[in-house]
């Protein structure tokens, strides 16, 4: 704000107060009068400066209150009063000398307001009324929609701005980033490509690399991410994404080098350390992975993330060693016992020991309902179905609005062959939790296995309408349509969206492959079935699909491999698979 001077607010206000006192004292001394004289009127410029300094001082008080947190001595009422006076002072400044930056500041005053971002948005729109097409206000307005999880509205704002200002490359870059964050990768790439190469910032190159990676354009993604890192060698996010793309390309040596260089630069990016741990586990070097985990930050979140990596790759002893770090800080958290139970069950095949650990999770802990469910599953695996069902009933009583216990009970009944009882449990849950997507999904699966596919499909369609980002429902509908050989274009849209929502899900990757196969797009089908068997390597149906796609492409050796694995892993359609083998 060029019109305003910005001295330290406390000093400035003190000086103003002292000036006023001296003026009154001077007048009294000169005249000897006992009555005070009126203060001279402020000029417009002085009033403007004064209002801005008042605003700054009050804003400083609010910032100090936020920084102090629970140590602050201000009451809620006092904070509200300071906030109102700050806004009033800022409004007076805006009335006299409005600028886009001041409207952004006003929006910031309401960003964390209990009423949400609508008050911030109102301030930004007020600013745009005075400064139409101002990029700063436009970007902040779009960001307010992003904060409210309304990406389409944010994109529309930026898209409209660019239609009026097609040469504004900073706005184009921001639109590309918004499209990327909204999962609209192809559109994001189209927008970002329109930025001339010489004008692409490191951020723009990073965004291009990410969306190209998401679209399977691995070579192009690596090229742009390398450019971003060359432009800004400390751009950690770009380095991590570049290493990840190398991982996907199975260039583990290059990926490891980048993760290592990130850790050399700074240890404040635990994601890089976790990725490096995961990479060493893929390279079957658990000792190096364990060393990296033990040298990592002592935070609970990092330790648990690292433990999960070891557990998921079957290195239970190393995971247990890392988990023991949680016992050095005094109170042992419930997560310690829960994860020890997982290791005891899956890694040591000792369910009795796992149950002992779960007994240490207390009812007041947030993990207690999960511990109850785990206990029930362990008891069921030991053949103690009645005890397991009793725990499920206990969970329903304690947490009537938690879907997991209705699903648990239904699953236990299903294992006993009581499909009607399973259906009743799920419907009971839906009485408490209307339209719950997980309960509805499980009920649809019951309909599927009891020969009521049309009812199940209708339920899944209802889940998609109410919860368009429910990956399992999207996958079910898409795969079912492909199996029935209809609406294949829509089926592909559904399973592709499901895969973007859950990219590491091998069953969904299989669905994508199968829809491409049904559409006679064999190259794409082969690409995705390869991804699927990499992730889920012991599923007979996926291996049968692998064989079918290979056979259609004339890859006889690969087809034989797929069918043999389907039989090895006990395909429920073994007779049909053997017939396919004979025909090769």
UniProtKB/TrEMBL annotation:
InterPro entries listed in its UniProt record: CellSynth/LPSAsmb/PSIAsmb (IPR051012), TPR-like_helical_dom_sf (IPR011990), TPR_rpt (IPR019734)
Keywords annotated in UniProt: Repeat, Signal, TPR repeat
Pfam families: TPR_16, TPR_19
Secretion signal span: 1-25
TPR repeats: 202-235
Keyword Signal appears in the UniProt entry: yes
PANTHER family referenced in this protein's UniProt entry, alphabetically: LIPOPOLYSACCHARIDE ASSEMBLY PROTEIN B, TPR REPEAT-CONTAINING PROTEIN PA4667
Protein name: Tetratricopeptide repeat protein
Organism of this sequence: Pseudodesulfovibrio methanolicus
